[in-house]
Specification:
Length: about 140
């Protein structure tokens, strides 16, 4: 299978969360995907969180409850280790739909609400760091 070229910044839609055209940073240094959310609460095998952020227009403020896919230890960019819940969702990226695992975390101090990591990109995409928003073409053709 030929790999699709993506830029260092792209647009992704998380269909199951009603989040469309979200800015994402492509991060080859990150193992997995992560999304910014607030009020993360874990109870039984469920996680409840709110998609609240004035800066990112895609965020709708809804409180969402979903089954936890996994809780894993993640070392964040500042070196702190956190236990992060993750969920399994359907996403639309570069004109195709994929099932993806996304960890939930507070990324309020980060420029991009979504981080796309290596596991999601593996065997599907190549990153050209000199390019940005190659996904715009696919969004125009919707």
């Amino acid at each position: 299978m030929e790999k699709q070229i993506i830029g260092c910044k792209e647009i992704i839609s998380i269909i199951d969360l009603d989040l469309y055209d979200l800015d994402a940073k492509i991060d080859t240094g990150a193992d997995s995907n992560a999304i910014h959310c607030d009020e993360i609460e874990i109870k039984d095998n469920q996680v409840t969180f709110r998609l609240l952020d004035e800066v990112h227009s895609s965020y709708h403020g809804k409180k969402i409850t979903m089954p936890i896919y996994k809780i894993k230890k993640v070392k964040s960019s500042n070196g702190q280790v956190q236990n992060r819940p993750s969920i399994k969702v359907n996403v639309e990226f570069m004109g195709n739909k994929y099932e993806s695992v996304i960890s939930l975390t507070d990324r309020s101090d980060m420029k991009f609400p979504m981080l796309i990591g290596r596991k999601f990109m593996a065997n599907k995409f190549l990153v050209d760091v000199s390019k940005e928003y190659l996904s715009e073409e696919f969004r125009k053709n919707k």
